[in-house]
User: Fold these one by one.
Assistant:
Number 1:
Amino acid sequence: MPCAGPVPGPDQVRAGLGAGSALMSRIAYVNGRYLPHREAAVHVEDRGYQFADGVYEVCEVRGAAIVDERRHLQRLTRSLGELRIALPMSLIALGFVLRETVRRNRVRDGLVYLQITRGVARRDFPFPPLSVQPSLVVTARHLDQARIEATAHEGIAVVTVPDNRWDRVDIKSVSLLPNVLAKEAAKAAGAKEAWLVDREGFVTEGASSNAWIVTRDGTLVTRPAQHGILRGVTRSVILDVVAAQSLAFEERKFSVAEAYAAREAFVTSASQRVMPVVLIDGRPIGNGAPGFVATALRRDFSRYAEIG
Ligand code: PLP
C-alpha cells in the first residue's frame, strides 16, 4: 500500500479518516488490481461510461463487516441476469474483493460500492462479442455515523417530483440520470430526498431509497416491488421485522395526498437504514418530528440484518 506524504491529498481528505488515524490513500479495486484512487481508472470505451451499460450495489459496512452481503449479491446476480452481463468472477471471489477493499481502506463504518459493466469494446450499440470481459470496480468509504444519527434524530425533508425513469427500475443499473436530477431538485428545495410520483399520483420510491408511510390507524404501507421500484435490501429486512413483530402492514400503492395526511413517513436504504421523514413538500408529517414506528424500526434493524 503506498505511503501518503505529510499533506493529505483530496483522496485522503475524502476518506474521512478520524483524528489519530494514519494518513492513507483510498484504494479502489479495478479489474484485478488494488490501486490508489488517483491511479484508478477505466477505459474511455468502457460501456459503463459510453452507455451506462452496467449495474451496481451499495452495501453498508458496520464494525468492518458487510451488512446483508448475501442479499446484495443475490440482487446483483438478478440485475446482471436481466441485462445478460456475465459475472466477472464467482460470488465467493467477489465477496473476498469486497471485504479486501473494505480492509485496505480501513473502513469500520461506511459503504462499499461495486460496479460491473459489460466491459470495454469499440463504441457500438449491440452487445460486444462474448470474449469481451465485464469490468469490475469496487470502492469503499467511511461514513460519519454520528452525523447520520443526528440527522435521524431530526428527520429529513423530501419533495415530490414526477417519476420519469425507464420501465426497468427493478434492475439496479448505473443509468441514474433521472435520479440525479431528482436529487438536485430536492437539494435546491432544501430537502434531502426526492419522492418520485407516477402518472396516477402514487409515490413509487425515493431517488435512492424506498418510501414508506404509517397511516393514521398505524398501518405501515409501502409499494409492492413486483414492478416500478427497486426491491431494496433494507426494505426486505424491514419486511422481516414487520413479520416477526406482527406489525399492521399493507403492501400497496399510496398517493401523495395520503402521504401528506400520514402519521409518519420514512425512507429505507443501505446507506441510511431507516430514516424518518418529517416534511413532504414543506408540509409537516404527523407532529413534524420523527415517528415512533420509524424510530423503533431504525433501532431494531440491526437485529434482523445479516452482519459479517
Ligand atoms: N430505490 C432506489 C432507487 C435506490 O437507489 C435504492 C438504493 O440505492 C433503494 C431503493 C434502496 O435499496 P437498498 O435498501 O438495497 O439500499
Number 2:
Amino acid sequence: MGVAAKIAPSMLSSDFANLASEAHRMLKDGADWLHMDIMDGHFVPNLTLGAPVIQSLRKHTEAYLDCHLMVTNPLDYVEPLAKAGASGFTFHVEVSKDNWQELVQRIKSKGMTPGVALKPGTPIEEVFPLVEGEIHVDMVLVMTVEPGFGGQKFMPETMDKVRTLRKKYPSLDIEVDGGLGPSTIDIAASAGANCIVAGSSVFGSPEPAKVISVLRTSVEESQKK
Ligand code: DX5
Ligand code: ZN
C-alpha cells in the first residue's frame, strides 16, 4: 500500500487575471490540489502573490491550496495566510534552521498543514529533524529546479534525495516541484514522489486533463512495483 497520489497544478503558469476560472478548470480536469507559489523577491529573484490573492481565490473554491513559501521570513506569513484560507504551508529549510519548531507549531495551531521544502543544493539530512521531531512537518518538498520560475528543466540528480526519503519514511508525503511532466514523471514517481507539482506541462497542454491523468497513473503504477 502506498501514499495517495496528489496532482497539484502550479497556478504560477495560469492566467493570473482569470485565477478563479483557471482553478475551476484544473479541478474539473482532475487536479487534487492547487499549488500556489508565494515569492518575496528576496529569497528568490521573482515576485508573485501573497495572502490577498489567496483570500480572493478562497472565495471561489474549497480546494486544498498547497502554498509554497519562497520567502526569507516565513513566520511573518503564518497569520495572514491562515486568515486568507491557505491549506498547506510549506516553508524552505534554508531560512528556517533556527526557528522551525516555532514555525511548525504556529502553522499547526492555525489549522494548516506544515511542509518543508529544500533547494537542489541543500543536503537531504537537513530535513530529517523536521520529519522526526515530536512537532513535525507532514510533507517534504524536494525542489527539482532552482526555485523562482516556472518552465525550467527537471534536474534528475535531485532524485537521490527522493529515494533516500522514501526509504526512510514509507508513509511520508513527498512532493516534487519543477520541470515535471509526462517525460519526467516516471523517474520521479519511481524514486518515490507522490505529490506532483506541474505548471508549464499542464497549462501548456491543449488537454490538461490528459497530462494530469498521465502524472497520476505513473505515481499509482510505481507504487504497485
Ligand atoms: C518554481 C515553482 C514551481 C513552478 C513549477 O519556483 O516553485 O512551482 O511553478 O513550474 P514548472 O512545472 O513549469 O517547472
Ligand atoms: Zn512551487
